[in-house]
Every structure is written in C-alpha cells, then in structure tokens.
Amino acid sequence: MLDIAPNRPDLPAEIARRRTFAIISHPDAGKTTLTEKFLLYGGAIQMAGQVRAKGEARRTRSDFMQMEKDRGISVSASAMSFDFASKDRSFRFNLVDTPGHSDFSEDTYRTLTAVDAAVMVIDGAKGVESQTRKLFEVCRLRDLPILTFCNKMDREARDTFEIIDEIQENLAIDVTPASWPIGMGRDFLGCYDMLNDRLELMDRADRNVVAESIRIDGLDDPTLDKHVPAHLLEQLREEVEMARELLPALDPQSVLEGHMTPIWFGSAINSFGVKELMEGIGIYGPEPQPQPASPRQVSPEESKVCGFVFKVQANMDPKHRDRVAFVRLASGHFNRGMKLTHVRTKKPMTISAPVLFLASDRELAEEAWAGDIIGIPNHGQLRIGDTLTEGEALKATGIPSFAPELLQGVRAGDPMKAKHLEKALMQFAEEGAAKVFKPMIGSGFIVGVVGALQFEVLGSRIELEYGLPVRFDSSQFTSARWVAGDKQAVEKFINANKQHISYDHDGDVVYLTRLQWDIDRVERDYPDVTLSATKEMMV
Ligand code: G4P
Question: Boundaries of each Tr-type G domain copy (predicted)?
C-alpha cells in the first residue's frame, strides 16, 4: 500500500515513497554485504552472493577491471533500485553506489550530490575509520541526513557507549540509539528495539532469515526473562536506562537536518538488524528533497521533469564507445520517449532508451519519478553538471569539481598520436575522471587527479580503450586554481602570467603554480581576480 510521508503531504505518492541514498563506509566494514541484504529483503535477488558474483563477472571483462579486482577496489559506480515493503507502506529504494577507495574520492563526492541521505556503516570493533570520516564530512557539507549501522556485532565489538561516544566526538553529531545490542561476539543475542520496545533475536542458524520479533511491554516485562539470560538482562536494563538518561532521544527533525544520527546495531552477514535499518530509512529517509538550481530551486512535486547529470561513465561496454550519463531526477514524472531540453546546448533530446538499474540487470525505464536515477546512453553530449528540463533554462548547482591535488604531464608514447591523446583526455575530463589542462605556452597536457592511483587507472584506460600507450612525467606545478573575475582584470592577469596559465576542457582559465606564496601574491596584486580551488561543473 502506498503511503504519503507525513512531513511532505504535498508530494505525489509515487515520489513520497522514494528513498534515494548511498552507503558510506571504510573498506571492509560490510558495505557489500549490507547491500546484498538490502536487495534480499527488497526481493530483488533470491539469495545472497549475487552482488559479488555479478561483480566478479563484470571484473573479468578487461585488464583494467582486472586491476580493480587485484586491488580490491571498486571503480565503477552504479545505482540500484528495489522495492521494500514495511507494514502498510511500500518504498522504492534507490541505492547509489559510492566507489570505495579513497583515491576515487572526487567521483564519490559527486555521487553524494545525487542522494537525499546516507547510511554510514561502521565496524563495531573499529569504530569511525578514516574513509568514513572523509565521506561523512562531505555529507555534512550538504547537511545530508545520516543513518548509522554498527556492523559485525557477532564479533568482539567495542562497548556500546564507547562506540556512540566516539561517533559523537569524532564527527560532532548527536547519536541516538535506535536499537541496543544484547551481548556481543559469541554472546550476541540480538537487539532491544528502543523505538518500538521490541526484542529482536538473531538466528545464527540461517543467515538469510530474521527470527520473529518478540513483543515486549518495556524492560520490566517478565517475558524478557524467557529469552535473555539473567546476566545479560541485567546489563541490558542498566544500559538502556543509562542510555535513555544520557543520550538524546530521537528527534526526526534533527535527523533530517543532519544534526543527529540514529544508530542501529546488527550483523549484516547474519541478516540481523538490516530490516530495522531499512524501516528506519523508510521513516527517517527522507523523501526526495528539493534540488538547488539557478535561478531557482527545483521541488520534486513540480509536474515538469527536471534532472541533472552527476556521473558519466564511458566505455561501460568496451565494444561500444557509448557513455551512460547517470541522471538524478529532481522533479516530475518521466516517461520513456520524452523530449527534454539539454539546457547547456539548448538542444532538444529525445530520451528513447533510458535505463533503470535493477539489482540483477539493466532494463529500459518506461517511467521514472523525482528521486529516481536513470541512465541515459549518449555519444558524449551529456556532461557532469548538465541539466535536462522540459524547456525551462534551469541549471543544477552544487555539483562540485575539486581542485586536483596531484599534477603530472602526460605524453603519448608515439608522438604522432598526440591528437588521439587529446581526444582521450578530453573524454576522461568530461567523465570527471581527471582534470586536463592545456598550457597556454608549450605543448602536451597536464593531468590533475585527487589520488595517485588515478594516474595508473587513467594510463591503463587510455591504453585499453584507445590503444594509446602514454607516459606521465613529473610536472613543475602542484596546484591548480580556476580564475574568475572582471574581464579586463583577468586578461591583464593572463598576459602577465602566461607561463602559469592553462585552459581546462571547458576552455576555462586555470592558474597553475607550485607555491602557496604565488596564490597569496595574486590575491594581493589582483584584487579583481579570484582564484578558486573548486569549480562548479557548470557552463
Ligand atoms: P566492504 O564492501 O565494506 O568492503 O565489506 P564486505 O561487505 O566485503 O565485508 C568485508 C568482510 O567482512 C567480509 O569478509 C564479510 O564477509 C565480513 N562481514 C560483513 N558483515 C559481517 C558481519 O556482520 N559479521 C562478520 N563477522 N563479518 C562480516 P571477507 O572474509 O573479507 O570476505 P568473504 O570471504 O566473507 O566474502
């Protein structure tokens, strides 16, 4: 049965039931396992193991993917849609995958612009790890609601209060327990559901089912004794009492604003706690949120379709040089075959073969609603940050492009192939896989990335996809800044600093340097010129 989310009664039911989110975690915390269990509960797969199996099949496709496999990193982000029924409500979940490795952070950051919430998975024994912290900070920039899942409680974990304290202190966010673990490691029995006063017991025998919840009337209910050994029961009562006294109670508004995170404890591999987390996503989700855009923001309930590209993936199939633009629908009801305006070029585009990413396969998207992610195959017209509308000149904002932290020169192994190299580099620049700068003086290109491994990935992709061996050389520059400001002042600045000037793939002016001192000097000497470490992916 459909239900309208209580805090947005104006949303059409199909939109109100959508929950679009990503999982953020440190490698090994259990993201893949949890994803698999989501799909299992969502009925999208029949048994555990398929996500991984699909990953393996995909990885056998190329050497590049081989590298992905060898290093145990995930390079290709994707989106998955599935339904989840909870009591009298039926949700459509859109899970957007964030590539796991820190070296791919830029891509990951942009992925987070396409979601309305994030699920933070932490390992109960390890607490908040570096990658999680980094991703959390990005979520915070957008005040994204965050729901926390503390995984691997079937192993020795830290003390529950300690885990909660660490999150509160490390991430400066209020934490409220949605569930409370009973025992841990070998003694882990299950959780006390703090929100519904229920007991959830873990069934160790079958990892793919969850034992029926037991209805309890508070912690003094005598039936508790039947299920929990005395020493654990005493501990549970004490801890829950302390938690209720010391920790803030769940405040849905504060969760929505990103100031508070509810935490569920569980064990993804044992399918335990997953269903409660999914119910939590449904209730505190939230539903599709307005999209910042210029000159006005776009609300999901608007009847006209508006969507923006947050990711472009080229060469998903090495045999075809097609690209898939991942589009987050910000408003309206999309139907296959619709003619939309590509705002940047003002050209109409008929979207005849949009794809929806279901767990096991891609399929043609006959229709989609605000909140959904669709893939649009194209030949390069669609770039990151592009907006599609039913005619209005709207531009999605807030999709960042990060200043690269590492710069290197790149040359084709065969100097005759320089033109080919330019084409390949431009494609990767459009895809957002690297920044490409063409220096104003001299030949060749400078490539900028956020993590060192990206050079290697880029090198193998250019070789694999374009048959072009390339060489990277160290560059005299280490920082890039986009130049903006008064036209005359910018021209004067360019003329006086030609050795440092280059152009990015959009033709925008970029100042390259090695020294912070240079940047400070420019800011002092050219008050009408601004140097910016990031550039919104806008035209
Ligand atoms: P990731 O995507 O975040 O990198 O983590 P992934 O799900 O691949 O899980 C990392 C490892 O942790 C896997 O073990 C997985 O089985 C295990 N794991 C996930 N959830 C739980 C849990 O609730 N309890 C316990 N004890 N282990 C869990 P692996 O040995 O690396 O892989 P595999 O051989 O099990 O596939």
Answer: 16-289
Measured between alpha carbons, how far is 15 from 35 in angstroms, rounded to an integer?
22
Identity of residue 422: E
For range 72-87, the mean pLDDT: 66
Superfamily per CATH, domain 406-532: Peptide chain release factor 3, domain III (3.30.70.3280)
Tokens (6 digits) for 518: 């240079």
Instruction: Classify domain 293-396 at the CATH superfamily level.
Output: P-loop containing nucleotide triphosphate hydrolases (3.40.50.300)
Residue 151 CA to ligand 1 center (angstroms) comes to 10
Known binding-site residues for GTP equal: 25-32, 97-101, 151-154
Tell me the CATH number for domain 13-186+249-284: 3.40.50.300
Q: Rounded to 5 degrees, what angle do the CA atoms 368, 80, 33 make?
A: 160
Closest C-alpha residue for ligand 1 atom 9: 30
Nearest residue CA, atom 26 of ligand 1?
152
Q: For residue 268, give the ligand 1 atom closest to its CA.
A: 23
pLDDT of 310 strictly over 60: yes
**Where along the chain do its domains lie?**
13-186+249-284, 293-396, 406-532
Q: Is the peptide bond before 377 cis (omega within 30 degrees of 0)?
A: no
| Binding pocket residue ranges, ligand 1, CB within 6 Å | 25, 27-33, 151-152, 154-155, 267-270
Strand pairing of 355-357 and 400-401?
Answer: unpaired
Closest CA to 49 of 247, 165, 253, 208: 208
Rounded Cα distance, 133 and 107, in Å: 16
Residue scoring higher pLDDT (208 or 39)? 39
For atom 14 of ligand 1, the residue with the nearest CA is 28
**CATH topology match: 293-396 vs 406-532:** no
* Residue closest to 174 by CA, chosen among 236, 99, 253: 253
Q: Is the pLDDT of residue 360 over 70?
A: no
Own/partner pairs, 355-359, CB within 8 angstroms, 24+ separation: 355/324, 356/81, 357/78, 357/79, 357/80, 357/81, 358/44, 358/80, 358/81, 358/82, 359/39, 359/42, 359/44, 359/45, 359/50, 359/51, 359/80, 359/82
The position carrying tokens 């396992």 is 33
The closest alpha carbon to 7, from 279, 298, 286, belongs to 286
Q: Whose CA is nearest to atom 11 of ligand 1?
A: 28
Per residue in 137-170, pLDDT tens?
Answer: 888 888 999 999 999 999 999 999 999 999 999 9
Nearest 5°: the CA angle 127, 164, 92 is: 85
Residue 44: predicted pLDDT: 60
